[in-house]
Amino acid sequence: MGFPNSVLSFACRFEQVDWNVGIFKETGDNIYDEVFSIMPALSWRPIPSTVIRFSYRYQKQWDILGNPPARTGAFQLGVSSYF
Questions:
Q1: Does a structural domain hold residue 54?
Q2: What CA–CA distances, in Å, run from 37 to 7, 9, 44, 48, 56?
Q3: What is the mean pLDDT of residues 64-71?
Q4: pLDDT number for residue 7
Q5: Secondary structure of the chain: what % helix, strand, coil (to 5)?
Q6: What one-character DSSP code corresponds to residue 74?
Q7: Is 2 contained in some domain?
Q8: What's the Rg (C-alpha) of the chain?
Q9: Is residue 1 in a domain?
Q10: What is the number of domains present in the chain?
Q11: Neighbour tally for 34: CB within 10 Å
């Protein structure tokens, strides 16, 4: 495609955050307020100073009471150039 030194990369990022560790003093129930996400990505670097990245993010987020998680997904397209 006219880019003899281009590089194609695959990445995957996992995240888990527990904002409130412990239990409620009043009831003894767990404090949730947690976020979990996974984000696979495909990057193409046609030249060393430019990156085009396509990724998908899947995320589950629990509220403070531990109700069933809100599930979200998003596609992202990023273009970066370094100079």
A1: yes
A2: 26, 20, 23, 29, 10
A3: 91
A4: 93
A5: 0, 60, 40
A6: E
A7: no
A8: 19
A9: no
A10: 1
A11: 19
